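Is zinc ion placement plausible here? Inputs below.
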Amino acid sequence: MITNTTNRFWFALLSVFAFILRDRRMRKWFWVPFVIIGLGFLLPQNMIIPVKGATTKSWADDSFWAYPWGTSITHKGIDIFAEKGKAVVASTHGIVIYTYEGGKGGKSVMVLGPKWRFHYYAHLDEIKTFPLKPVKRGSILGTVGDTGNAKGKPPHLHYAITTPFPYFHLKDSVAVHGWKKMFYLDPDIWLRKK
Ligand SMILES: [Zn+2]
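Reply from A.M.:
I modeled the complex. Tokens:
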């Protein structure tokens, strides 16, 4: 599939169904995961810019899906520039799925938010949260840095939103990697509203 998170999400969901369907007495509960997924889509999403003190001028208009973009080919998020050490906060409420150190993202945090959207915060200087921690809009996740492949570039937060449920109307037949736009949402759309 598209991202590791999407892969793991579908693996977990299918495992739940397999678990329910293999036991005769459990089968009558097969609708429960559907209801939980439906409820997740109903949760309201109110977003804030995930860097303290940042404004809509802190990232470039064409940051999302910029091309060419090194080994990633296209840039599947936005880069919010700020001084090193500025607080990185959760853009929406949710739960921290994992924190990670290594690879292109350097120190990074993944938060599952409303509507089954995964919010990815990368290149952090410091991680200040932990897996399974519930977060509110504005909860501190870490600080802005230049870890991973941001090394040697001005410190910034790479912020991306992915969805394991494809949004077919976002498919782009012109852009490079355009079909992947079904799985990557442009944070700009929600951050610029306020
Ligand atoms: Zn980036």
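Short version: Helices lie at 4-22, 32-42, 188-191.
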